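Thread title: Can someone regenerate the structure for this chain?

I was given the following input by a collaborator and told the matching structure tokens would be attached. They weren't. Posting the sequence so someone can regenerate them.
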Amino acid sequence: MTGKTFAEKQLSGKSGRDVHAGDYVEAEIDVAMAHDITGPLAFQTFDEVTGSDGALFAPDRTVFTIDHHAPADGVQAANNHNALREFAAEHGAHQYDVGDGICHQVLVEEGHVGPGDLVVGADSHSTTYGGLGAFGTGVGSTDLGTAMATGDLWFRVPETRRFEVEGDLPEAVYAKDLVLKFIGDVGFAGCTYMAAEYAGSTVAALPLHERFVLANMAIEMGGKAGIVEPDERTARYLEAQTGRAPSTDVDDPALHADPDAEYVDVHTYRAEEIAPQVSTPSNPENAVDVGKVEGTEIDQLFVGTCTNGRFEDMQVVADVLEGEEIAPNVRMVVVPASGAVYQQMLETGVLTTFVDAGAVVQSAGCGPCAGYHQGVLGDSDVCLATANRNFPGREGSMKSSVYLASPATVGASALYGEITDPRRVDTSRYDDVALAKGARS
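Best answer:
Regenerated them for you:
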């Protein structure tokens, strides 16, 4: 018998069985999450399963966030918010309110997830937690409601596709460029119900905020999970965030694939050969080198989301905009991933840089990414975004067009009002380029 992948090890441990890809297991979950869109339906299922006096499987490991329609943009949204508040208070769960931030960022910042955890979230980008070495996956509201009651869930153990990158990333190339390249190579359905393992010296050198990008967008190729194995950088990040060491040893063999693990295939890359990437409308798999679309006029720039709304992403854009103004033909919408990111932007002057450049900075949340509010697109609008999806109507009108790119590419494009290769911009003034390349955790 061959060795095991990360996914096989995790679901073996959580099910108490020796399992391999293709097996079906009932696995114990560690953390359950829902937000203001998916929570109300999950609550209905929970009540049907448990009855009127039902209890959560683990209130201290159940988390609800108000982040999608936040602040409320109508009565229905406000009622959904109240439903989350009331359910959380009644059952003793963790609940984060308007402005606290996007679920995936908040769970990481607040220490709810750690290496080796099995996390189910009623949101497709729950794969994000794989950046910490957890098995994070999205489930439907009905599955989430059942899991909240029972503490376990059925899974098919996924096959794994591995992406290995070696070498040093070039100037102005980031994890977003890597994952867009991967998606472009295997296609939007290339990892359907598979785990995506990211490895190699390049990935090992990435700071955690960049690892989250890789894990987050595994779902954009159909992935059940996206995994970066934990290491000492992971441990340092968690200690900095939570003030305590992770509960699981990051060197535990259970958190690392075996050398003889069996993969569907292994995609290998040289980092120095990767150029800044842009995904053209209307699918993330339409990834091309930025030079192929350079000069495309844009109407709006969007900086934010659970993919690239962290402080380091904001810093990259702000460093480009420092002392400059955005081009007169465009508007820029900035939405930090959490209230903590917003506060850090205030304290460091990054928020002032955005405002001085002509951007609109809003409270933390998901609004524009999901096309709800805070800056949706109209007919014929063209947007360049740090988001994860660019399907028709994703950020507003079905007649709008959305391009996806890294914060560096969005920042450079803001100066010219058209898609611009970030390597054209003077990067000598990038204060935190070392951080973005992995010098710090």
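The mean pLDDT is 94.
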